[in-house]
Amino acid sequence: RQFKFEYLTKLYTHYNAIITVDADDDDNTEELKRIVFSLYRQIYMRFVAVGAVHEVNISWKTRAVLIALFEEDGNDNGVYCTQNLTEILNMFTDALTEVHDLIQSMYGQGFK
């Protein structure tokens, strides 16, 4: 399941412009992957890592996948270099789904 926020049209226009990468331009693709992965690592450290200041409540299965992506490699590059851009952009989909479902169960139809 992919999250899409229809009211954020300007954001999606900007996002699509950024990720439209020339298939022949591997340097740009690799640089974009590195930048996105770096931002995601910051999100991971703040919200997902065990003991994080703002740790969210997600299943161990989902957390273990993210731990493997961001911690087990032992270096700042993680495993981003083995993933394509779409996989990187969707790394948090399962965690977001779990947090959304948890909030939905607590606040019902008021949260959409």
Low-confidence stretches: none
Please bin the fraction of helical residues: 55-70%
| Count of runs of 4 or more consecutive helical residues | 5
Roughly how many Å is the radius of gyration? 16 Å
* Extended strand count: 0
* Amino-to-carboxy terminus distance: 15 Å
Class from secondary-structure proportions: mainly alpha
* Overall form: globular
Strand content is: under 5%
Main sheet properties: none
Q: What's the pLDDT, averaged over the residues?
A: 76
Q: Write down the secondary-structure element order.
A: HHHHH
What is the compact description of this entry?
This protein has 112 residues and is mainly α. Helix content is 57%, strand content 0%. 12% of the residues are buried.
